[in-house]
């Protein structure tokens, strides 16, 4: 009962985390233009993401352009590309491994130890994917905040935290939570397996004792 509830909760949380990771990787709202001090041009919004930058104006629809070169990006965005791609790949791999280890699948022929190992692997992969996503999101957020309060940086070049960063934090938390849930499910499976093995052992010992006692009584009666 507890294992089934953990699996359902893990299914929901891991789905949210994986879809959110894919969305964050492709969203351009990592850095958003800030309207402060003398920067009163509020009819133009600039978005900067990992793959493209977009400009939205009041009278013109959204226009996006893919970056011409990776070297033109800042170091934090360059590293974020690789880390987010790795997080997306790990989350998808963890999803496949988790589905394989679910109770409803027959791939492991109902073997509890095998399912426990598969579930533990999926949990560790989810936690690793969450860490890979959390690093670039926090790195970019720290760079944005540092530039925002840096008096040397021009006001027009200052940016604010975009929606992709907030979604990235939520997705990373969901991935880590899904990993913890699957690890707990593996622990429950190990406990149930221990209880299942210990009961027959006690029963066998007790039966053997009774059998020995009966045999001993029979021998004494025959001797008399």
From TrEMBL:
Keywords, alphabetical: Cell junction, Cell membrane, Membrane, Tight junction, Transmembrane, Transmembrane helix
Membrane topology of this protein: Multi-pass membrane protein
Subcellular location: Cell junction, Tight junction; Cell membrane
GO cellular component: bicellular tight junction; plasma membrane
Membrane-spanning segments: 79-99, 120-145, 165-185
Chief place where the protein resides: other
Family stated for the protein in its record: Belongs to the claudin family.
Purpose: Claudins function as major constituents of the tight junction complexes that regulate the permeability of epithelia.
Record's protein name: Claudin
Organism: Trogon melanurus (Black-tailed trogon)
